[in-house]
Amino acid sequence: MNKKKIGFWSIVLLTINSIIGTGIFLSPGSVTKSAGTQAPMIYLVAAVFTSVLAITFASAAKYVTKSGAAYAYVKAAFGNTLGQYVGVTRVIAASIAWGTMGTFVVRTTLKIFGFDSANLTYVTVGFLVLMSILLLINIFGTRLLTVISDISTIGKVLALLVTIFAGIAILVYTGKSNISDINLLKAADGSPLIKEMSATAFVTAVIAAFYAFTGFESVASGSQDMENPEKNLPKAIPLAIGIIAAIYFGIVLVGMHVNPVALVQSKEVVVLASIFTNPILEKVVVLGALVSMFGINVAASFHTPRVLEAMAKEKQVPEIFAKRMSNDLPLPAFLFTAFFAIIIPLSFRYDSTGIAIISSISRFVQFLIVPLAVVVFYYGKSKETILDSKKSVVTDVIIPILALIFSVLLLVKFDWKGQFSIKDASGAVVTNTKAIISMIVGYVVLPVIMFVYTKMRKENR
Fold it and tell me: Which candidate, 320, 347, 345, places its Cα nearest to that of 335?
C-alpha cells in the first residue's frame, strides 16, 4: 500500500481544510447579532487571537514532532500525568468537534435534497453513512485522503472567493450599502435588537467568531505522516491562518454591506447563502458550504484517531489503539473516536447550538497549557528530550505568554451561565444538563479512568 508522506503545500491545504468548515458559513449571524456593524472587526480580533495561538502551536511543533499535537507537547514539557490528562481531553474535544461538523454536513445535505433535517432517523442514518464513507477514504491511505482534502479545500476557497467578488460586484452595480439597516431591527419588546456592546457581549462575539478559526490545533496530530514536520509545520500553519483571515474578513465585510439583516434573521442552515437573492449565487454558497463541511470531516477523520494512537504508543491508553493496518490507518483508534463523534451529537438530539458550544469550550484546556509548554522548551526545562531547534524569544516566549493571557481573559469574561442554558419546549430558559454532564464525563470521569488504568498497568508489570 502507498505510504506517501504529506508535503508542505498539502499541509497548508490540510490546515485550511481543517479550519474552514462550518463556522464561516454558519456563525456570521450570531456574531452580527452580538456585534452589529462591528462584526468585521470582531473577526479581525478573532484572527489575531488565532494567529497568536497558531504561532504558539507552530513553535511547539519545531521542538516535538511526535504525533498527538497538544498531547505530545504537554507530555514532553511536563511529564506523563499532565500529558495524559491533556491527551484524554483532546481525544474527547476532537471527537466532539468531529461530531459537530458531521451534524452540520448531514443536516445541510438533507436540506439540499429536500428531506426533513430535523428528523432524528434521517440524521442518524445520514451520520452513519458519512462515517462509513470517511472510513473507506482512510482505508485507501494518505494518498487518496490528501487528494480529497486538497480538492475540497480548493473548492471551498473558490466558493468563498466567488461570494466575496459577487458581493463586491453587487455593491458596485447598485452603488448602495445596506450596512445601516441592521440598526433598524427591533426585538420582540420593541427595543433595538442590536444593543450597545458590553465587555461580555464583545467576548461572546469573539468566541463565536473564533469558532470559525478552530481546527489549527489538530493539524500536527498526524505529524508522523508528514514530510519534515519540524520544518514544514511552523511555516505552513501561520501561512494558512493568514490566508483564512483575509478570506473571512472579506466575506463578513461584504455580507454586512450587501444584506446584514439576512445574516441576523435567516433561518436557513447555511446562513451565509441568505445574503443573496440570486438563486444561482445562493446555490454556489450552499454547495461550497457542503464541500467545506465534507472536507473538514475528512480532515477530522485523519487528525482525531491519531491523538488516541499517540497515547497508545506511550502506553497511556490500551495499546490496541496503536495498531495500524497495512495502509497505515489506525483502525481501532478510528472506530473508537468515530463512536464518540456519533454518540455525543445523538445524545444532544443533534442540537447544533448545544454541541457547538461544547466543541468551542472543550478546546481551551490545550490553549492554556501548550503556551506554557513552549516556554518550558525555550528554557530547556522539559521532562523529555526535545529537538535541538532554533530558538526565538519572540515566538517561544512573548507570543506564548500573550496566547495564555488572551485565553484566560476569554474564559474569565465568557458568559458561562448563558451558554450552558437552553430554551425548553415552552420557551423557558433551563440549564443545559446534557452539556454539563458531557463536560464532567470528558474532563473528570474519563481522565480518572485512564489514570487508574495506567496505575494498574504499572503495578501489574
Answer: 320
Helices 199-210 and 28-35 pack at an angle, to 10 degrees, of 160
The answer to whether residues 49 and 406 touch, using CB atoms and an 8 Å cutoff, is: yes
pLDDT score, position 298: 85
Name the least confident of 61-65, 129-133, 356-360, 450-454.
356-360
CB-based contacts of 66: which residues, under 8 Å, 6+ apart?
Answer: 72, 76, 223, 224, 310
422 belongs to a structural domain: no
pTM of the model: 0.77
Residue 458 domain-assigned (yes or no):
no
**Domain that includes residue 264, residue range:** 8-417
- Contact indicator for 222, 10 with CB cutoff of 8 Å: no
Does residue 454 lie in a domain region? Answer: no
Helix, strand, coil percent content, the chain, rounded in steps of 5? 75, 0, 20
Say which CATH number the domain at 366 has: 1.20.1740.10
> Among 29-33, 39-43, 318-322, which stretch is predicted with the lowest mean pLDDT?
29-33
Task: Collect all residues with Cβ–Cβ distance below 8 Å to 269 and sequence separation of at least 6.
Answer: 26, 104, 107, 108, 111, 117
Q: Contact 428/443 with Cβ under 8 angstroms?
A: no
